[in-house]
């Protein structure tokens, strides 16, 4: 292939910060930008699979692919997102595919995975070269599945709310990434931190955002994503935010367009092909 596949893990130390919402928002932006993308739903709750309008058929879910990664046949088992209404003729058009999540992945969400187990997702994704971007939606923990995702990734995007515990958790996660790089994945680097569910009228959020800017500097990605009242409705209807009617969704879609561009351009110039 003439381009390098970029594998990006979307991670958080704690639940409830909208990690899957950020994953699906970035997937929506990638689809709108014409970037062939695969979403790997590594969270045993499989919320990204639901939000992307996918129902498992005869294909292997990602947990069963991980069980036997050398025989996984990734491209035979991914499912086209329900967001892609009309497949283009002759195999053209932009792909948004999903490696389906399931509770089965939970067997790997242990703190004691060895080096061989940490390579399972890397082996599965060796066949992902038809895509330009792979987004891995991780569980909200630093156990085995997240570490497996980091092992397979070029970059990690951390999702945080501008609150005390989330900011502290982000700092711990940054340290965990540094340690993981040293021991297992020297190629891994943070792509940045997404401040999500921001309430601009909240003085606490304003204070915490300033704190995050001082702690993380340029790693705090722009723009921040505000809290959106109808986000659960959009996800429940299995729609891309770019396809949802109304000014609020349009504004959020533009924010995710910018966020995707900034996330990819933080990648040391390897995304030059986007300027076609």
Please outline what is shown here.
With 276 residues, the protein is of the alpha/beta class. It has 11 helices and 7 strands. It has a 7-stranded mixed sheet with strand order 3-4-2-5-1-6-7, sandwiched between helices.
**What would you call the structural class?**
alpha/beta
Q: In order across it, which strands form the biggest sheet?
A: 3-4-2-5-1-6-7
Order of helices and strands: EHEHHHEEHHEHEHEHHH
Radius of gyration: 18 Å
What about the largest sheet? 7 strands, mixed
Quote the distance from N terminus to C terminus.
16 Å
Tell me the overall shape.
globular
Strand proportion, as a percent range, falls in 5-15%
Detailed description of the structure:
The structure is a single chain. This protein has 276 residues and is of the alpha/beta class. Helix content is 39%, strand content 13%. The chain has 11 helices and 7 strands. Helix 1 (19-33) crosses helix 11 (247-265). It is globular, with a radius of gyration of 18 Å. Residues 86-93 and 268-276 have low confidence and may be disordered.
Question: What are the SSEs and their pairings?
Answer:
Layout (H helix, E strand, L loop, with lengths): L5 E6 L7 H15 L3 E5 L5 H5 L10 H6 L6 H4 L1 E2 L15 E4 L15 H4 L1 H6 L7 E5 L6 H9 L2 E6 L3 H20 L5 E7 L7 H14 L14 H6 L10 H19 L11
Parallel strand pairs: 1-5, 1-6, 2-4, 2-5, 6-7
Antiparallel strand pairs: 3-4
Helix pairs in contact: 1-11
Characteristics:
single chain, 276 residues, alpha/beta, seven-stranded mixed beta sheet, 7 strands, 13% strand, globular, disordered C terminus
């Amino acid at each position: 292939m003439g381009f390098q596949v970029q594998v990006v893990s979307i991670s958080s130390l704690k639940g409830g910060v909208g990690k899957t919402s950020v994953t699906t928002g970035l997937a929506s932006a990638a689809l709108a930008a014409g970037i062939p993308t695969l979403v790997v739903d590594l969270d045993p709750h499989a919320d990204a699979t639901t939000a992307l309008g996918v129902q498992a058929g005869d294909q292997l879910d990602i947990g069963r692919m991980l069980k036997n990664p050398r025989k996984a046949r990734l491209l035979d088992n991914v499912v086209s997102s329900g967001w892609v209404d009309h497949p283009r003729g002759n195999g053209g058009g932009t792909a948004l595919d999903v490696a389906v999540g399931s509770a089965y992945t939970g067997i790997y969400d242990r703190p004691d995975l060895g080096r061989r187990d940490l390579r399972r997702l890397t082996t599965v994704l060796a066949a992902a070269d038809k895509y330009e971007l792979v987004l891995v939606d991780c569980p909200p923990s630093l156990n085995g599945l997240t570490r497996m995702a980091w092992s397979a990734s070029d970059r990690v995007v951390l999702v945080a709310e501008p609150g005390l515990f989330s900011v502290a958790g982000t700092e711990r996660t940054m340290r965990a990434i540094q340690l993981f790089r040293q021991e297992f994945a020297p190629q891994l680097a943070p792509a940045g931190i997404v401040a999500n569910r921001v309430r601009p009228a909240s003085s606490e959020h304003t204070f915490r955002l300033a704190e995050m800017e001082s702690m993380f500097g340029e790693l705090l990605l722009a723009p921040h994503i505000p809290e959106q009242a109808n986000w659960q409705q959009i996800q429940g209807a299995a729609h891309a935010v770019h396809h949802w009617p109304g000014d609020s969704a349009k504004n959020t879609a533009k924010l995710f367009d910018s966020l995707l561009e900034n996330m990819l351009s933080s990648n040391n110039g390897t995304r030059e092909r986007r300027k076609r």
